Amino acid sequence: VGNSSVLTCPPKSNITMVTWKISPKVGGPCTLGYRADQNKTDRTNCSDSMNWKFRPDRDPALEIRQVGIAHEGHYTCEVVATEGNFHRTYHLIVLVPPRLTLYCDDQGTPVCKAAAGKPAAQVSWVLESNSTPKEEGHDNGTVTVLSKFTAYSTNMTNTTCVVSHPAGNQSKSIAC
């Protein structure tokens, strides 16, 4: 989320026509088209964040700027060239890294929170804990995971929470 993403088409010479057909999970479909004989581009219902990366006659790649959850969906590039018709389909899944916070609750118990990640983060502790994480889903598809540290022994001073996520792993330590 937040980055730019470039989706490429099958590289062909002597392109006659290129069409990007986009079916996002949210909102209606959109198309970007290019006709070589008229050197003309066309767009239907596409947001400004989606456009050709370069000139479509040189490189028909699609660039999505500031990728958001709403961009998730299917992207198909269809190329018509002298040697035939070619297509490539992408299924875009957007990863949202969770925000990690670690704090001590009123009882002096470490609490680790991985907020608004997509998909849900895996929360664990460096030292053994019999904690069961709780998940809370949000309307935008993100998930907050909350885990309280439950110690087997009481003589611990420093505790480390580890958050594993496809967008990157994080860890923080605290003494309660």
From TrEMBL:
Domain of life of the source: Eukaryota
InterPro entries tied to this protein: CD200R, CD80_C2-set, Ig-like_dom, Ig-like_dom_sf, Ig-like_fold, Ig_V-set
Gene Ontology MF term list: signaling receptor activity
Membrane topology value: Single-pass membrane protein
GO biological process: regulation of neuroinflammatory response
Coiled-coil parts of chain: none
Gene Ontology terms: cellular component: external side of plasma membrane
Main subcellular localisation: membrane
Annotated keywords: Disulfide bond, Glycoprotein, Membrane, Receptor, Transmembrane, Transmembrane helix
The protein, known as: Ig-like domain-containing protein
